[in-house]
Amino acid sequence: MKIQEVIDELKSYDGQPVKIMEVCGTHTSSIFKNGIRSMISPKIKLISGPGCPVCVTSAAYIDRLTEFSLKEDHCVLTFGDMMKVKGSSMSLTEAKAAGGKVKILYSPLMALAEAREHKNIQYLFAAVGFETTAPIYALMMEEMKQKNITNLKLLTSVKTIIPALSYICEREKNIDAFLSPGHVSVITGADSYRKLAEKYKKPFVIAGFEGEHILAAVYEIMRQLKTGRYEVKNMYATAVKEKGNEKARALLSEYFEAGDDFWRGIGIIENSALRLKKEYEMFDGGSRIEGINEEMPKGCKCTDVILGRKNPAECPLFKTVCTPLHAIGPCMVSSEGACGIWYQNS
Amino acid sequence: MCVAIPGKVIEIRGDYARVNVMDNITDVNIKLVDAGIGDYVLIHAGCAIEVISGEMAEDILSLFSELQEDRYEDPGSD
């Protein structure tokens, strides 16, 4: 089948309006970069989901990081995306400007050399992310154990996507299908969506990140909807296996256990956290934060954006007072947040 | 945050491999995968998270031929 035939069919669709949620921020970016919306019927709506871990991290978590960075001989290690996210009073960028020690790393594994080199400094790694990143934290702890590194801890806010999708399916009945996140699926496997597809009777199609991948996945979803099917289809088979990366999953089971977690803009989602097991609490830098109940800024529609009810342009703050340089809501902060992506591309 | 890029393994040294990513050579942890020299791996945050079966272009070609096969098998489609 030629790609033009796929585009022609998707473009000429004139049936019932269809809403497809792309869960992953990288898919949202790719949809813009490849002009996917211009290649499909306006009756097929592509909406963003909760797939930006930075955007759903609580302000209380950021507060722990900023407080730590401001202590003498303490240093926070983090991915760059986290720098601009506001806590209740400041972001890591602002803490750094106020004299805090914050260092951006590309990989959690780089933290090991940093800690071994500066033994007089206490390090805290901002361990955020979904299933894609979590096994790397497990590798990090394995190496900390082997090399007896004691001046490095993890502040974990590791979230899992399947409970979040279940939460959305339960509440947002008008979403017809899901474009499943490609790189989370590399770890969790195609099989991880089967129960959801069966229970909520929705197609879950795993897609890669090229424009062609996304078009093919949308086409597959439309075909399933047309024929009344709700299947898990792996259209990123180059990288995603049925059971995922089993070595990575075994490491996750070794170091982490499920717990309830707070998602900024959503609230508590049951069993959506990967928390360090008790036997590994020596690596924990105080990750347990109880009783978080954070309101979104007044007028901010990030909750509706994360749950697929609105697109960013429907928020009254978008591009008026909320911009990447002066972000009000968390979805504008990260380059993978839905509002940040819409801002850059519209 | 879940961005991952493919690279080709050119040398293995214990738990790490030298990998060619778009003509940049970088060291990547390979403990989560069974990678050999010449394999393509998908790299996230300094770590290979999967061995991929070939170049992405080949994958895309097979994707569309799969859609074609489905179309003929699918009795509901027109």
Outline the secondary-structure elements.
The complex is a heterodimer of chains A (about 350) and B (about 80).
Chain A: H1 3-11, E1 18-24, H2 25-33, E2 44-51, H3 59-69, E3 74-78, H4 92-97, E4 102-104, H5 110-117, E5 122-129, H6 134-146, E6 152-159, H7 161-171, E7 177-180, H8 182-188, H9 194-200, E8 204-206, H10 211-226, E9 232-234, H11 246-255, E10 256-263, E11 267-276, H12 302-306, H13 330-333, H14 338-345
Parallel strand pairs in A: 1-2, 1-7, 3-4, 3-5, 5-6, 7-8, 8-9
Antiparallel strand pairs in A: 6-11, 10-11
Helix pairs in contact in A: 1-10, 2-14, 6-11
Chain B: E1 5-13, E2 16-21, E3 24-29, E4 40-44, E5 47-52, H1 56-73
Antiparallel strand pairs in B: 1-2, 1-4, 2-3, 4-5
GO molecular function (chain B): carbon dioxide binding; iron ion binding
Pfam families (chain B): HupF_HypC (PF01455)
Organism (chain B): Lacrimispora xylanisolvens
Summarize the structure.
Chain A is of the alpha/beta class and 346 residues long. Helices cover 36% and strands 19% of the residues of chain A.
Question: What key phrases describe this protein's structure?
Answer:
heterodimer; A: 346 residues; alpha/beta; 6-stranded mixed β-sheet; 5-stranded parallel β-sheet; 36% helix; 19% strand; B: alpha+beta; SH3 type barrels; 1 helix; 5 strands; 23% helix
